[in-house]
Amino acid sequence: MPLHQYHFNASISSSSSTFLAPPSAFASSSRTQNFSLPLRNSEICRCVATPQEAKTPTGASLLPVSPSFFSSSAIMYLRIAYKTSVSRNANIGKLQAGYLFPEVARRRNAHKEKYPDAQVISLGIGDTTEPIPDVITSSMSKHIFQKCQALSTLEGYSGYGAEQGEKSLRAAIRSTFYADLGINDDDIFVSDGAKCDISRLQVVFGSDVTMAVQDPSYPAYVDSSVIMGQTGQFQKDVEKYANIEYMNCTPVNGFFPDLSKSARTDIIFFCSPNNPTGAAATREQLTRLVQFAKDNGSIIVYDSAYAMYMSDDNPRSIFEIPGAREVAIETSSFSKYAGFTGVRLGWTVVPKELLFSDGFPVARDFNRVVCTCFNGASNIAQAGGLACLSPEGLKAMREVIGFYKENTEIIVDTFNSLGFKVYGGRNAPYVWVHFPGRSSWEVFAEILEKTHVVTTPGSGFGPGGEGFVRVSAFGHRANVLEACKRFRQLYK
Ligand SMILES: Cc1ncc(COP(=O)(O)O)c(C=O)c1O
What we know:
Layout lengths: L7 E8 L10 H4 L2 E6 L3 H5 L8 E2 L5 E5 L9 E5 L10 H5 L5 H15 L6 E2 L11 H18 L15 H11 L10 E4 L2 H12 L5 E5 L4 H9 L5 E2 L4 E2 L2 E5 L18 E5 L11 H14 L2 E5 L24 E6 L1 H4 L7 E4 L12 H12 L5 H10 L2 H27 L4 E3 L5 E5 L5 H12 L1 E2 L1 E2 L10 E5 L4 H15 L1
Parallel strand pairs: 6-18, 8-11, 8-12, 12-13, 13-14
Antiparallel strand pairs: 1-2, 1-5, 3-4, 4-5, 7-15, 9-10, 14-15, 16-17, 17-20, 19-20
Keywords: Aminotransferase, Pyridoxal phosphate, Transferase
Protein name: Aminotransferase class I/classII large domain-containing protein
GO molecular function: pyridoxal phosphate binding; transaminase activity
């Protein structure tokens, strides 16, 4: 019988104290119940970053499992009935905790359980909240209707599309975002999102490269690097993985790293406008970054997922910088432009001029990985992408972005009026609030406990984020206003 058809006989216990901490006195202090579930092995482990086996008083092994699987905030433990002989990937074992945003969600759920009547407002994980503009969804519906009609006929049926994306969409992305920047349609690979492409790029680079990130940074860069085996162990004293160059980005250096102090690495992940700090690099700073990469023979992976949020006259693409095509890849997304976080559509630009040390084009290896690990974005999502890039779609996207930018102003004004130092916001949907001398998780917990508002602790983005909290502008207006009212009450 295949493994997924087994019913695991499990004893279940919960611990809501410390994330993934095994229960110390299992029998006496924890709720227990017997149950039988049709679980797949993969589901048991999916969200567990560092499973630590616990023991029952009789010595039986217990495995911590995803709380979200049980729709509960508590950590659950399954009695292990059977183990395979396959060793766990040691690189995944290096990861410290759950991916940041599931952990924030877990704490939000725990809070909701604790205060079932509270109106919890989420300005935390940075998911979009406003409806996808009608001009885009109508086009998608039309496409689905036509496609479905065709798919049910012999003549109209089609299966896989081009792994790299539909020609018309690649052309529309180029002409909308890269006109006059020397990028060709076939340099653009349409995907199911920037996060997925970040991991595919890591597969292209392999485990032998060194990498640098802005500190703080979007967690997918570091976590995918750890999973690929590019790093050493996590060093608890400095809160960093060995073998990653953390390029400190703070108010002191204007959130742009001091490149004279940055060690050479093969790969440099750089995000502008930045998640989480909201900082956007200037033309002059990006020119220095490109020169730094060129001097060191490095490749920049430039994440422009928030470029359309830019108000200042900073580059929206790394390819606005002369010479960037020889040293940079750019990844981007429809997620935060069109509310496509669930639809899933993004793209990555790999110029033909970008070569490995042996002269082999990076684009050809990326193409190879895309064809092996991915089979192209859904044609329905791509129809939505095309609609986004029509004149009406672009106008509608700008309106939604404008709405979130107004939210940003409300949040910035609130914290400014309370005397906090506030960064970001102007070029990104994130507000980076400084709480000097305080732990980010402590401030996150204080805000959640006292205002029922979920934010994101800055230290979750790297040690450079300690002492900051990120407040996302993705929220309904009424919720943002209510959250700000509560912030004013808490910090008046
Ligand atoms: C900087 C950055 N890059 C990439 C992503 C992921 O984008 P996608 O939804 O296209 O995977 C996010 C999402 O929050 C992000 O903040």
